[in-house]
Amino acid sequence: MTPQAAHQPSSSLAQSEIPFAKPFITGNELKYVTQVIASGKISSDGCFTQGCAQILKKRLGIHEVFMMPSCTAALETAAMLCNLNNGDEVLMPSFTFTSTANAVVQRGAKPVFVDIRPDTLNIDESLVEAGITRRTKAIFVMHYAGVGCEMDRLMVIAAKHNLLVVEDAAQAANGYYRGRALGSIGHLGAYSFHGTKDYTCGEGGALCVNSPEMATRAEIIRDKGTNRSKFFRGEVDKYSWVDAGSSYIPSEIASAFLYAQLEAMDHIKALRRQIAHRYDRRLSQFEQLGLLQVPKAPVECDSSHHMYYVLLSDQETRDRLITYLKERSIRALFHYVPLHRSPMGERIGYHDGEFPVTEQLSGRLLRLPFHPTLTEEEQERVAHSIGSFFNVARTQKIFTTGRLVESA
Question: Can you point out the beta strands (E) in 309-374?
């Protein structure tokens, strides 16, 4: 086969697209949503919203959980609870979603970026203390792909410098670090239930409050700065505006959908783990040849298995593989553009070259199709296409083990 011919997908491979992500439906979502509609109480904080909070509290060992319309809302509430103000600084990775930084910027504080570890792509705890100044108020960590940061070390550093720790656990619901649920270890945590997440209601989130003294204020911030929840519980005879806040309460319809998902947390995680292990087995041969790297969680971490990614030798190879797979109707994607390299990051004062691990790995990372309904046949198609790409690349003198070589 000529190199040109090898680039053309066969008709059988092009017949159906393998999507990057797809929500898993348990079967009870419509039933619960119908119950809410029939009740006429669709607005907020009904039995399903409260039920979702109770499941997360009891299963994950969190002091208090407040359901939110998004993880972004949860992070913004966390930033308010940290009492961030103009001139304050917050340490965080540059390799994260914009919501992590936006929550800080909206309070007038500055994100202070820290490079990441090459094994987990999480914030490098060994570099954190070097970034602490008298202005530092908090550390916002992000558990990439559902694998926990080195939380013990981070909590020791935070205690030493009297800092708060917020876990951006958007990808990590039902993931664990040394037997403790991610989101339950820092002073505050945030989950996402977006349509691409492991447990979903389309758009949704949760704020985890692990410091009891913050719970009352979190409830007030969430409900437009009022103590209305106390009024509904009969604790006050009227409610009023008592603090700054916003409308951070989800629809009961969304919560009903999510309740069905949370009931099936173990089943959904088991399916995701099985798919991750199949990828491991099928792609390990390419890793042994030095063609790519597969993710490996530290022994102390029980991943949520939110995604499956591989690291290629360089960005050019990664980008060519994305195109190659797309031609074969396989949706594989890169991930974050590091925040320090974004237009907003430049405005804050960052520039290329400051965080070499972040810059290198973000350019090499490729996320593969990953969702609970991904079949073994589809995974085989993905793996076979990756293998075909490397054979073509060898023939075209593009790639083998990181060096240009003559074809055999």
Answer: 309-311, 365-367
**151 CB-side CA count, 13 A:** 27
175 domain residue, yes or no: yes
Contact 374, 275 (CB under 8 A): yes
pLDDT digits (tens, 9 = 90+) for 134-192: 999 999 999 999 999 999 999 999 999 999 999 999 999 999 999 999 999 999 999 99
Residue 401's CB: how many other CB atoms inside 10 A?
10
* Total tally of structural domains belonging to the chain: 2
Domain of 122, CATH number, reads: 3.40.640.10
Query: What is the distance between the alpha carbons of residues 47 and 53, in angstroms, rounded to a whole number?
Result: 10
Residue 193 corresponds to which amino acid? F
Distance, CA of 103 to CA of 190 (rounded, Å)? 12
Same domain (yes/no): 197, 66:
yes
Taking the C-alpha atoms of residue 360 and residue 355, their distance in angstroms, rounded to an integer, is 9
Q: Cα 273 vs. chain centroid, distance in angstroms?
A: 16
Co-location of 251 and 134 in the same domain: yes
Q: What are phi and psi of 79, to 5 degrees?
A: -65, -35
- The CA angle 210-213-215, to the nearest 5 degrees, is 65
- Are 96 and 142 a contacting pair, CB within 8 Å? yes
Radius of gyration of the chain from its Cα atoms, rounded to whole angstroms: 23
Token pair 């090898």 is found at 6
Q: Which of 291, 274, 260, 272 is nearest to 145 (CA)?
A: 272
pLDDT tens for residues 251-305? Answer: 999 999 999 999 999 999 999 999 999 999 999 999 999 999 999 999 999 999 9
End-to-end CA distance of the chain: 14
> What's the domain range around 43?
29-263
